């Protein structure tokens, strides 16, 4: 965006004092905790990334969250405003004064962002992924990989399956993927985020892998990416991923849902989708192995 | 199955502002509808027509048929030969009309045509002839697959463009355009007017016939699509269309064997008459709209036409019935010393262009036109955008560059006009109200509002009881 | 004696439309008889002659013609100045080219909004059908807050919606919650396992807020309108809503909140519910049936969640029962209904504008001796004024009246919080409660005021703060309407109106 366009936008933007926002499930606790100063990590037209220090079990750690406009990608660490970036200038907003998070609001100088409602960011699926859908998604992803590199892609299911079974394998995979690649969310992290969120939704046991990934992530990957991995481990992800998960378990065309994931970021979408696909493949094998999916606490009441 | 619970909501709200505000306060995007009550007394009819189980499918079919039409210019033929018109029979613009109700320009045009056909020696003598009704008859162009601009008078010796849809073989026709100023269609009948008409019948018509026949079918739909990209809207501005037509036909005119001087005169006449192509846009529009006629349950307007006294519309679901009201006087700019008091009420079949999504509906493609009413280019944008409110579809070939090549608003829906109170906007020329004067100005006009509730009532009585 | 001025300006081109506008403007000036400012085309030269001007000798198509007939020299000079000014004038931009006018119909709005949008209609009932049909025909679910939509239109609307696989919430749907978004009058609640299908607005709000108090969230609340379970409408929306909730992986238990439907419709809906994978629990309100609080407790049991002690504020020991009449002043229709059902078991006849028995109907004056309950939100009392959940004035006046009535033994009120409701109802009600109790005291009576407060903790008004304000004014406040009513009844000796 040119400077003059920014200036023009600024002139037209009259920010109200109170801005309602939808609050991702995984950020609600942070919003309602005691107020503390937040630091700006990065500012973009549709997203501002911020961090606060919090103590988890005695150890201080960085927690990242995002202030997003309505047209931004809905990160599971987001406070999502009801207005698009065409009607609000986030950089002006966050530069209006000290930024304080907590006590039910995010205060930005004279402006207050309030948590008006809770956004569902936890993935929910109904049943196991279907073989045909997994195969279709896999074929489409391989076609993209071939088109990009001319080479067949990694055998992600083969790489990740052992990581669910043993601690050493989990650590090995983490060393291989965490922080691998450029950007705020390296591609290796995106693969893991897609895998973790889908595996959690499909009720695979991800405890060992998640421990290894989060351990490895400290200091080795950007704070935002580490935060998104934590959310993924809690089963929290993007709405596009939710739609893909839903379609993987239903006899519906997979193309639109997969394309929506592929459109995320520059290359993040492909990495996320590959991780989701790998988890679906493993979940399908596990279900076939058991003949039936273990009922989860959330669907156990159903007389299926 | 609804996917309501799968997406984070966005809201479209109409009604009490408080509820929209309450949703906004929850960080949910809200689009607010600027709703207003429908035209008075129409609630029952609206509900019944909207509840009609045939409506949605009928309108979809009407649109499908319209968009499938291609209009090819296939021939140029005298009206007598083409329509079996005998001397004494005259076609005119608009809904049916009797001489005693005819306005000045309509009378002038008929009188001129009577003289042209040799029924009287001088046009002035024709007044008695028409008043007596002996040996003369008046019928709407629309009843003969024809359209005519302004008075729209067609008599046997006038040459007609013939348009055909190759897929269905359906045909429409329209007379040749005489140019601006003192012309028959504006009610002028001075000797030079008749002289020009005789030249058109004796020279221009045959020359065009030879050229078109030699050229083969000429795709008028394609030219219309292009002219919209070149600042024409197909009703009050046809400059680009005219020149593209001339470009297409010129080689065949030259090789027709006609005398070079004759070809030069014809080429100069066509090139110097910015409205020449109007008489091809109009029958192309009629060909499109005729395809959508007579679909039970359809609320689509298939014709808007004025005879200088009354404005009439026809609707697909109500067959050939006309719904009429008093024609309005256009608002606009006047030539020379003329003023509003000199202008005749709205006249002509040319509103067929708006009915098919051109003219006033495509105003955003021709910003120069809006200044006829003292507006700005932004008014032109707004005019087209307003017409989307009352139409069913966006045209798949006719697009508006400034609106990011959005299709022009196509298919006026009676129910939407009644619901919004937004009347179709028509670009038009204005005829002097005294017979023989000719054009006095140009401007914008709308149909009388009453025709839409009347059409709605007829649609309602044809719909199953709710 | 007038002056004719004819001038030819070479090389001064302007487009014909501009020139028409200049001619018109100059021609209208005081003291100007005629004006023509035009390019010297053949047509325009003819026009000039027709206007009686002497044509210029040398003029061609690229020359500008200025012809003015003025009554005197001053008028001519003024006209020439105006001509010069008008020829150089440029219109000022009045709006931005990006501005798009607001859509006038739901159909038009639908074209500009992406998928997944829900249409919320609160137009006058006689007009709402067309907009609602627009919504479902453009593939959108619709909530119709409006009442007074003719029954035949409701049936047809729901038929069209079924063809398009869409849900119609309403007409007369006051409350919905979709993906955590409250629509109409709705409380702010967290996502959770309970899905609600509601034919009643404030009844559904009571269920929402009690679940919230129990720490249990809601996946969605889908209103269906008060008539959906009638024989004519045949539960069309109820069935669609049940299917939507059944397909929602978040929903573990479905509650249907309604007055008892027609028997054959109830049977059909139950039969449909039995085909779903998600358990469905019916909370049908009426005499001899469990109240809403009991229905919520049953739902909590079914989910394996603990039933909490329902919150209350300022409730002390119950004093000895005294004679007097119960006066219930409600803003929520279903809450009023529930109150009458519970109270009439102990007290017998309760007069009302929405009576349980026809012979218990109140006259239009809304005055009668004995126990009575008024629903201030009833259609007949809201014609031409906002709902009492927004505008408390009507009820406040009645509270003052009851305070001076020696027969009034207990005042029972509801306060409904949430989106779209009054932003601080306690601030209006507390002074009225305080004043009412003082008025009663002045006549030597103690007037207990019992309030059922329907609100969730996250509601914009803040339930605790509202409750504390009311408690401080001397009211006893209950989160459960049923408990509030039972408490109010316990303050009176049965049948003991004087």
From TrEMBL, chain A:
InterPro entries: AllH-like. This is DUF2877 domain-containing protein. The lineage of its organism: Bacteria, Bacillati, Actinomycetota, Actinomycetes, Pseudonocardiales.
Automatic annotation (TrEMBL), chain B:
It comes from the Bacteria. This is DUF1116 domain-containing protein. Gene3D superfamilies: conserved protein of unknown function from Enterococcus faecalis V583 (1.10.10.660), Enterococcus faecalis V583 domain (3.90.1710.10), v583 domain like (3.90.1700.10).
